[in-house]
């Protein structure tokens, strides 16, 4: 019985660790798309946030500085997406893809400039644990409930959802569509930057090129699976985190399965989950549709 309990605790802890970066990024996606702006740049923002978390922790010796640096850089990059998508009415998918490519090149370039190493950074100070669980886990769960309350129980949340559903009607009622959409996209940068930090100075204590490994896209899938709801996204992220924890379970049990198959598990679960909800999940009506006040 003791062995079974220990096994289950290990799996649960692994699930929470794996789900945390996904949850934070997914919450960012919820705010952006609820305001009417598609943000597939979450992957790139996460990647730069992961780099910034390590860099600022490295130069200051403080993990908290790393977290703040990741958030600031994440919001800065999301502001680029916001200006392109909201102000200039650029194709939001193209803008997101461009940012993802920019992030990959930027982080690799900075690795060579700062550490003369294209592989990985030196080890830095990381965010600590509480009761054996990393602090990012507690923060992510708390932010999920706070986000749910903000979206569904506050006037601000009602306005954000209004500009994502019926921007013209919201504008007629005196709600600034541009202002609310900027806030939604900037919040996505906040959460995605924090997600990157949770990966680099939460799960580990260093940065490696491409370390997000598609987690930003899995976060988007979790957002869709969760029907653009913070708590729904959290449920989906726990599911995907559990799929990632399968590898830990197999290692504990001593099952000899090729590591490549274990690494595929979260992505396979993501595809299956999306296949099951596509056509049944309805995004905000104006999601991805630029709003032109002059028309």
Protein model, in words:
- This protein is mainly alpha-helical.
- The chain contains 11 helices and 2 strands.
- The chain has helices at residues 2-34, 42-60, 63-87, 92-115, 135-153, 155-165, 167-172, 177-203, 215-225, 230-253, 259-277, and strands at 129-130, 133-134.
- Helix 10 runs antiparallel to helix 11 (259-277).
- The protein is globular, with a radius of gyration of 19 Å.
Number of helices: 11
Spatial order of the strands forming the largest sheet:
1-2
Strand content range: under 5%
Radius of gyration: 19 Å
Counting helices, strands and paired strands, the structural category is: mainly alpha
Question: What value does the average pLDDT take?
Answer: 88
Number-wise, the strands total 2
**Unreliable residue runs:** none
First and last CA, distance: 68 Å
Instruction: Characterize the largest beta sheet: strand count, sense, and whether it forms a barrel.
Output: 2 strands, antiparallel
* N-to-C order of helices and strands: HHHHEEHHHHHHH
Give the assembly state of these chains: single chain
Estimate the helix proportion, in percent. over 70%
The general outline is globular
């Amino acid at each position: 019985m003791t062995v079974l309990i220990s096994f289950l605790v290990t799996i649960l802890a692994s699930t929470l660790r794996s789900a945390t970066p996904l949850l934070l990024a997914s919450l960012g996606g919820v705010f952006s798309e609820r305001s009417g702006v598609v943000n597939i740049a979450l992957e790139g923002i996460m990647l730069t946030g992961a780099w910034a978390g390590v860099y600022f922790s490295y130069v200051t010796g403080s993990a908290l500085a790393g977290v703040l640096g990741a958030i600031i850089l994440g919001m800065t990059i999301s502001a680029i997406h916001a200006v392109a998508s909201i102000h200039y009415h650029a194709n939001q998918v193209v803008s997101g893809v461009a940012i993802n490519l920019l992030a990959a090149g930027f982080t690799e370039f900075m690795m060579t400039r700062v550490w003369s190493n294209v592989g990985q950074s030196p080890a830095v100070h990381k965010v600590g644990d509480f009761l054996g669980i990393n602090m990012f886990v507690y923060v992510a769960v708390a932010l999920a409930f706070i986000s749910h309350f903000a979206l569904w129980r506050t006037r601000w949340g009602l306005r954000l959802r209004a500009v994502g559903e019926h921007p013209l009607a919201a504008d007629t009622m005196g709600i600034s569509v541009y202002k609310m959409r900027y806030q939604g996209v900037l919040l996505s940068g906040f959460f995605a930057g924090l997600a990157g930090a949770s990966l680099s100075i939460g799960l580990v204590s260093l940065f490696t090129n491409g370390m997000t490994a598609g987690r930003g896209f899995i976060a988007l899938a979790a957002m869709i699976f969760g029907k653009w709801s913070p708590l729904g996204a959290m449920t989906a992220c726990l599911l995907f985190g559990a799929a990632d924890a399968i590898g830990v379970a197999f290692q504990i049990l001593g099952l000899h399965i090729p590591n490549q198959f274990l690494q595929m598990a979260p992505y396979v679960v993501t595809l299956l989950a999306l296949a099951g909800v596509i056509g049944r999940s309805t995004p905000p009506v104006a999601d991805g549709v630029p709003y032109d006040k002059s028309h």
